[in-house]
Design brief:
Radius of gyration: 26 Å
Largest sheet: 6 strands, mixed
Structural class: mainly beta
Strand order of the largest sheet: 6-5-8-3-1-12
Number of helices: 4
Oligomer: single chain
Strand content: over 45%
Length: about 550
């Protein structure tokens, strides 16, 4: 009986001690740190507390490799408490900086969190303090980091929280997800920029002059797909993506035919550099009329703008600074029985022999979508289209894996993984690639694929580079992958995950120089985000 009493006494003391030990649960998300943002989420903190508890101090330590001159400010915010009815374990009551809010895409919304401390121009070790009494329940804090706008896009940040004090006592710090390194990026287009609600569908190329051209939908009224008020926008960078010129409108159909602009949308662009002439081509789909419902279902068989979507081109002969009037090539490539012909958004290619190739997709007479390619052998004067690569596929990207051999990597409506096919005769015939439907997982989403010859990159190896949401559910975990065996395998050691957050998920890759690949994508933190990744980060 005495032993039982001692055991019960010990358990009572143990329970009291356990409940008296305050704990911070910390999450460090793998999301980009944008140089154009005043606030970026560095750490999210969850504290189960009693009324009146106080988080007195937090010690933040940057890695030794971090140049703190790149950091303008670190801020500690208090975000209140969790709703009692909300189930599950969360690390924020709301989204602190919404990529979809016109007014709060670049800084913390003060409606949702209150700044408690700030350290400007920090050293490697800093202390953040508060006197905020907490409320009974789950309380939330978060730490913001502001980068200097001139910070190199190749910068990496590592940080940790080695010490916390609650109620003047050391607290336990429990990590619930910690990024090894954080990468810097820039929000090229954010909700509300130039009065537009949203920007979608990225394409990216590097011109012969080294200029980066990022193309996208300007979705003025909402993020809705065509049919809506949509034009094609373009941003230029002449310094490897560090800064971007003001947006240009590359293609618009305005109020053609007397119809409202929102019934003359043009969107889902793909961009191509003619590497022999440095002429830049953009192809996009123009939808005329059709009311204001989805063009995917309201484009009909036929050839005229009043019946069916039109395939439109514009070109630039001054490195993307000015653009031609739209050129309609629908009659050259569309079958009248098809409901909808449009490009595979992203980018096209120039083959070794100078042939220009754009991926395409079309909804055939049976209402089934199919992916393929169209091509021009006369530098864009005339265009041709042969046969589909695989049925029930849509958004695709093409590379020339060997001279005259094109690989088409396709979004597959069956879900789960990418479809891949090969043609040696510009799409007259196709064969399935051994990697098809198992090597690259996807959540049914657009993706990017580029080929980099051995002489054109620092590794000296022939590479295929691929990017997409690396998952089968949701559009998150945006990842760049490298293949050294022609796309047969994509080893985990040749992958870099950039953004674990949920977003629209479309991506486009282009080489910046022989050492660096650029990615222009729909991230969780900005509608059009640009980041740069060293090839040596992908291939050790």
């Amino acid at each position: 009986m005495k032993k039982l009493f001692l055991l019960l006494s010990f358990l009572t003391v143990f329970r009291l001690f356990s409940f008296a030990t305050d704990t911070l649960f910390v999450h460090e998300p793998q999301i980009p740190l944008l140089t154009d943002r005043t606030d970026n989420v560095l750490f999210e903190i969850r504290i189960p507390a009693k009324k009146g508890d106080i988080l007195n101090k937090l010690t933040l330590q940057f890695g030794k490799e971090v140049n703190t001159q790149d950091i303008k400010s670190v801020r500690l915010f208090y975000a209140g408490v969790e709703a009692p009815s909300k189930s599950g374990e969360h690390f924020s009551p709301v989204t602190y900086i919404s990529s979809h809010s016109r007014d709060w895409t670049r800084k913390a919304n003060p409606s949702y969190s209150v700044i408690k401390d700030e350290v400007k121009h920090p050293s490697n070790d800093i202390t953040l303090t508060t006197t905020q009494p907490m409320i009974n329940g789950v309380n939330y804090y978060w730490i913001s980091i502001e980068m200097n706008p001139q910070t190199s896009l190749l910068t990496k940040i590592s940080a940790t929280l080695p010490k916390a004090i609650i109620n003047n006592q050391p607290a336990v710090i429990s990590w619930k997800g910690k990024a090894d390194l954080r990468r810097v990026g820039i929000g090229v287009r954010q909700a509300g920029d130039d009065g537009s609600a949203a920007f979608r569908i990225p394409g990216l190329v590097t011109t012969n002059n080294g200029t980066l051209l990022g193309v996208y939908d300007i979705r003025y009224n909402s993020s809705t797909d065509l049919q809506e008020k949509v034009d094609i926008g373009i941003s230029r960078s002449t310094d490897k993506g560090q800064s971007w010129e003001p947006m240009r409108v590359a293609m618009t159909m305005g109020e053609a035919g007397g119809l409202p602009h929102a019934q003359n949308g043009v969107g889902d662009p793909s961009i191509l550099v003619d590497e022999q002439t440095n002429t830049i081509w953009i192809v996009a789909a123009w939808t005329h009329g059709m009311g204001n419902e989805r063009a995917w279902w309201n484009s009909m068989p036929g050839m005229s703008p009043d019946e069916t979507a039109q395939l439109m081109l514009v070109k630039s002969e001054d490195d993307g600074q000015t653009w031609s009037e739209p050129i309609n090539i629908t009659s050259q490539v569309k079958d009248p029985s098809w409901y909808f012909l449009l490009q595979g958004p992203g980018r096209g290619i120039t083959m070794y022999d100078g042939t220009l190739v754009f991926p395409v997709q079309f909804i055939d007479a049976t209402r089934v979508p199919n992916a393929g390619i169209m091509y021009s052998k006369d530098h864009g004067k005339t265009w041709h289209l042969h046969n589909l690569a695989r049925t029930n596929t849509t958004e695709a990207q093409a590379v020339e894996v060997e001279s005259g051999v094109i690989m088409l990597n396709m979004r597959d409506n069956r879900g789960g993984s990418r479809a891949v096919a090969i043609t040696k005769d510009l799409g007259k015939t196709w064969e399935e690639h051994p990697s098809s439907r198992h090597a690259l997982q996807e959540p049914i989403c657009m993706a990017s694929l580029i080929k980099v010859d051995a002489e054109d990159n620092v590794t000296g190896k022939k590479l295929l580079l691929f990017s997409n949401p690396n998952t089968t559910k949701g559009r998150n975990h945006i990842t760049i992958k490298a293949s050294l065996d022609g796309g047969l395998t994509w080893p985990a050691e040749h992958q870099v995950m950039l953004d674990e957050g949920e977003g629209w998920g479309y991506t486009c890759l282009s080489m910046i120089d022989k050492e660096t690949v650029g990615i222009f994508y729909e991230s969780s933190v900005a509608h059009m985000t640009f980041q740069a990744v060293k090839l040596t980060d992908l291939i050790q």
